[in-house]
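Forwarding the complex inputs:
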Amino acid sequence: MSLPRITHLPSGRLLSTILHHQLLLPSIIPLTVPKRAVIQGEYRRPGQPKKTKFAWQKINFNFSKGLEAIKKHFTLLKKEFTDRWVGPEGKPIVEHMLEQNRVVWEFRGPESLREWTVSSDREIGGHSEAYLKLGRNNNTCFLYGTLSSTPPRDGETRYSGYCTMRSKQPLASFDRKKHHDWSSFNTLQLRVRGDGRPWMINVSAETYFSHQKDDIYCYFLYTRGGPYWQDVKIPFSKFFLTHRGRVQDDQHPVWLDKVNTIGFTLGDKADGPFQLEIDFIGVCKDYAHTEEFAYEAYKRNPEV
Amino acid sequence: NPYILAILLFGLGLGTTITFASSHWLLAWMGLEMNTLAIIPLMTQHHHPRAVEATTKYFLTQATAAATLLFASVTNAWLTGQWEIQQITHPLPSTMITLALALKIGLAPLHAWLPEVLQGLDLTTGLILSTWQKLAPFALILQLQPSNSTLLIILGLTSTLIGGWGGLNQTQLRKILAYSSIAHLGWMILVLQFSPSITLLTLLTYFIMTFSTFLVFKLNKSTNINTLAMSWTKAPALTALTPLILLSLGGLPPLTGFMPKWLILQELTKQGLAPTATLAALSALLSLYFYLRLSYAMTLTISPNNLTGSTPWRLPST
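Prediction (whole assembly, two chains):
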């Protein structure tokens, strides 16, 4: 017995016109496929881009990029396995014991800029701008822009005007998190050339398991303007704990065995252009620095 | 606060004692829970995020193990009608209890929490965790009559291998001691079904060696290899003798640490498990490598330093 003839399905174009026809009724909604954000009226912070696509529409399948990614991740995995035979962090133990200085970030080519993320208060709707490029002779990184402390008009923000540059989280093979292990060092050394503004250095350690995601250890970087380079050495014992920018009462020294990112923030309330040039960022072990922590710990239940 | 410290330490002691003295599974479980709960405030006393992280991880794993233990004992009570510790004969509860106790003490493949947890703690609490907290689960393990010898051999061999392999590239001393704990526990479990007295002997010698190692690190206030390399300035006599402890942990004859390994290998061979014995002995080489590396860093080399003045041990202590 032959199968009954399948009724002729309406073509796709016909279906889309039906959809448009249904949407023509409320004329304020634009003539596109309905989005949850639009229909349910999600609040969008001024400065965030409009959500016009669903999540699955943003996927971009690309075979060659996929192949490159596979190659990259497997190379990293092989490197991890072979490094294990050499020693901790891929260096022989003798080198690890003798290591006194280590340059962690050095800006010698465009690929070094890809390890850094630059953001400003434009994300919340402010008017500051920040850009990162390589300095002269491809030898330094140059962070520049304009600060503007006009708060965005969203009714809830009172202050504004900040720019920041933060290093990206180091990743092992297959995008797993890796940490910087600076436990054999005790000083941060930078070579910078600023414009006299006071910057803040933020070191962020691993906080995934302790549920304190915005815990950042900060210290100041006072730049002296001028054509001369400035060598800055800050011991890690001077970094104090803040959470979302507020200094905490219960202070403790930063543990250096799982450092995730380092960042530079400018938030002085002076509008106008700014510049910061960084030559390198390194860590060193200063044997003469024996201070463990520069601040006293908050005393709970003090005796009165 | 000394009162709170006294309460917590008393709780720790009581928990272990209750587990030792119990013949009912529920009482044994209670002792284990008391141990967990009493050590939690000790672990977070420094309010550091890493300490909190270590405590959270420890609590979650120990709670899981305790829940599995309770479930297994209840299943056994349901299936056999009695709560005796020594009468777990049904294979399902027996396997679950072995796995739960393996998670409690940190045997591979349930070992992933131990290095991170030990790393987040200070040395004293780490010492308590490594030594005292293993007594109560071992009291229960020793009383089990394992019907599944394959599981125990697999646990033991995996532990020795992972303990040796994982500790190879560590520079943090607490993580090294965690991996050494995993390896030693593996050795203990290997011989459990043949001769529990050798297990007990290995446990006690491990306690003594780990206790002394932790105390040496405490004295030098060192938590990584580079600071340990400075210990010759602080206590030269101790620095000269510490390789004895470390190599004893590694199981080198004629030091004491060799004795349990020798007895275990002899017992395994007598039971016809010569390949297992060979594999265990070979994986002991891996852990011996990192103990040897620690002694190299500490005693056999003088690290670069700029001590132009006197070394700390020469200065009069107040």
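The first strand of chain A starts at residue 101 and ends at 106.
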